[in-house]
Amino acid sequence: MANVIKEETIQYLQHDITATVLAPGETCAVRVKRPDGSRVTFTEYVDPVLPGTQNSGIPSDKDEYHSWLLMRASGRARGAIVLESVAELDKERFSYLPPEPVTVPESELELVILQALRIAKRLDPQHLGYVPLDAMGICTILNLEYDAFNYSNQRLIDRNHVEITGAGWDRLKPST
Question: What is the pTM of this model?
Fold first, then answer.
């Protein structure tokens, strides 16, 4: 049995997400308990050679690296929740590769944001849509550039399509 290095459990839109970094530290196991009681599990794997290498986007400090891996893995779960694709994660193993994000038209990015906000509101109506989106999680799942995604979000705010507090935009920093 593997040793637990670091673990976090959060509740997000009526889902319980537990992410656990396992020794020697390149794997993070994630368990998502859905509101209906069903469970989804998946793992994030990082080649042990990558942390700290140039252009990998991975911190070299062990504590920062483990926090980064937890954030990435739980972000994938949160992103899948608002994209209604949690079931697609089940029993998958995601291997980290240095990012090569795809370019997507701004209108498509805006549509992704608006749909994710609508889903978040539907999944957790008691918060009236004031639930934080995990931008990095969504970008991880869709292989999008964080800066372009963030720009599209800001454009929605500037045009009053989304309230800044209503968007609940995350405070996570990009991994690249």
Answer: 0.82
